[in-house]
Amino acid sequence: MPAWGATAVLVALALAVAAALAEQACRLRGLPTRGCWLAAMGLSVLLPLAAPLLPPLLPATTAATDVPLPALAQPATSRAIPARVDGSIGGVVDRFAGHVVGWLQWTARAASTPAYLPWMPAALSLAMLACLSLASLRLHRRARAWRRTRIDGLDVYVAPQAGPAVFGWWQPCIVLPEWLGHQPSRQRSLALAHESAHLQARDPQLLAAGLLLLAAMPWNLPLWWQLRRLRCAIEVDCDRRVLRAGGDLVDYCETLIELGQQRGVQRGLMAAVPGTHSLLERRIRIMSARPLRWSRTAAITCTALAATLATGALAVATEPARPMPAPPPVPVAPPAPAAPLAARAALAPPAAPAPPAAPARPRKHAAGHEDSPEQQALDEAKREAEEAQERADEAKADAEAAEESALEAKHDAEQQAAEAQAARVEAEKAKVEAEKAALEATARKQDVEAAEQALKPASTAN
């Protein structure tokens, strides 16, 4: 039982890393990411349970090595040389995974197993199912006091301290808090659009499936992390759908920040809850990110690595159990009769001169592994990793250069805007001065006309 649990944890951990890589690949190509984590959770639960029914992925791996498990703990000089060596990278990884799983199984069977240990997983699963059921019943009981109304053509529930969220698994509905009714109509519309996108994508049912998969193995710690990333992927995919439907990025981010500051206390079984500040910052950063220059190459690389890890997880799950070998008998020589010390010294032949010491040679030459296919495969894998690291460094440098260019452009735009504002102020000042000059000219003209009219009677009298 401990060996099976350790194998399940290793499989879930490998699938979690593979799902993270697949999520990054989908995000680079603008594809939904929630399916990666749901598939990882499903395989993390199904592979360990169905492992006895599945054939080994590489049945010839253990036979090719022909190395017993206790021999792995002996020094390198006393190991048996494998009869056949697979020089590919996959063969090296599969042999390493097989040895790890075999040692776990051997160690677990060697240790004493308590009688209650096989019942612990089932007890934990039942306890978690009971907690989920009680939380659901409590939430339904509180929902009886909520007021049902219709806002913007949608039937919603208005709660004093819940939402905005999607409530229910079989027939989900939207729940809005009372304080949202006092907010501007723009924020209320964006919140309703977000929750409607959850309903159209069946995110409550997806979250329910994730909770049930976690309840099957609540002791498997990588599954909890996978569930957390699944919730994050659900929110990120929903944000992408809302923005593609015509939502403004700035207004939508301001609405999310406002909802995050005023979030309610009902969480856990509800989908589309604003979440913690770290999740909100992650969502805003993902929505505001610009497409990378090497997005296609990076997506292909992440997909290849995810497929490799998923294959390794399948190989670990289907590795056949190895029996615990018995220790070899140690021959015991009969004790020799004791002889007098003087007689043994007299009968002993003269000591021969010691032969000259042979020149020391490197260990790998003596063992015959200098040019082995396994070492060549490892060197090739190391070179490929270094090349991939160089490409990643170049992509990072390009991204930094693009960011610097964007900052310079932003600085230039701000400087131009400041200059335009200063020119506008100068123009307004010139306009005011021109109006003052016009008023002064008008006043002078009126004074001249008045003087002319005053002079006309005098000239007439003369």
Report on this model:
- Helix 6 crosses helix 9.
- The protein is elongated.
- Helices cover 65% and strands 4% of the residues.
- It contains 14 helices and four strands.
- The protein folds into three domains: 2-116 and 294-317, no CATH class; 121-288, no CATH class; 419-453.
- The relative contact order is 0.12.
- By secondary structure, the chain is mainly α.
Short description:
The chain is mainly α and 462 residues long. It has helices at residues 2-28, 34-50, 60-65, 89-110, 120-143, 185-200, 203-216, 221-244, 249-261, 277-288, 295-317, 341-347, 363-367, 373-461; strands at residues 147-151, 154-159, 165-167, 173-177. 65% of the residues lie in helices and 4% in strands.
